[in-house]
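Consider the subject:
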Amino acid sequence: MNESQLRNGIVTVNIYDSFTSKQYNDALNTEAPTEDGNNGAIPSYNILNMSMNYRWKSWGIGATINNLLNAKYFTHRYDFWGGKFPGAPTTVNVKLSYRVHK
């Protein structure tokens, strides 16, 4: 985390990595993918994320970028769905906040 004074407010910038190791779709840890795609190893992946925030008095504005480098990856399947699911692409979230003091 990096926090700096800017004019009358504070800027905070965070960059963080999320690593997920290799996963399997079945209890037997099948490596080779099956024809229907329901079983087989899912490769490991890294996702880089970033957030930026500016606070001034009671106000705040910020943005979060998930999957900053637009990594292509798959997530595990769920028991009631077959196959592997593509991971989320780059997404950006923006927020505006106001803190009420008592």
Observations:
- The chain has one domain: 2-98.
